Amino acid sequence: MVHALREAHRVLKPDGLLLDLRPGAVHRRVGIEVDSQHKQLAIMTESLKDDYAANRAVAEIIREGLFKTVSRIQFNCNRTMALTDFSSWLADFPTDRDARYGRLIRIVERAFEEVNGKRKKIVVKGPLILKVLKKIVG
Amino acid sequence: MIRVDPERNEIRALKEVGTWRGKKVLEIGCGDGRLTLRLAGLSPKLIHAIDPSPNLIRAARKNIPSAFAKQIHYKVGSAGDLKYPSDSFDRVVFSWVL
Question: Among partner residues B12, B96, B98, which is closest to A57 by beta-carbon distance?
């Protein structure tokens, strides 16, 4: 990760900006939306190890004097999907907690069965963070 | 289909960084080009967008609207070995990759 950030420093023009956009190190909230009404069902237990490692890598290149922080913006980002897409989306998260994910899928499936309404969808909520760093030459 | 950020908060935040008009941009981790197309709408001069997955780059190339065809260049590539000369870009966007 640090190497990738050093590469970014190399290809940036002097005073160029590096924008680090990624989900915040916070567990995502899973809910169901029916006819625009949202109901939270569960909080995910995905590993946040990679997020912390990325934060450390960014802190390291700032310490090295390659970049300085210009701003940090946090905002909400939703992902919406049909029930059929939920399991495959969940499979993208490396975890040693498959049993918990199995339980999460069952909770979501049950909620889907219990509610009436034509426009049902799963909504996963979580913050995105945009860090803006300026290249330092010297 | 999974829709990411239907409210477009992401691109709103990227706009706050300042003008993109005329900028040379490198997007790292472009995937199927979801964010690339939104960035292209901010009128940068050029976007080079890379991703290590050939399948995703193929999908991104397939989805490119003709209006952006000259502006966006998709390529298979990795963040750790950027095949570009030094001092090439005004902005480098790490798109959900770090």
Answer: B98
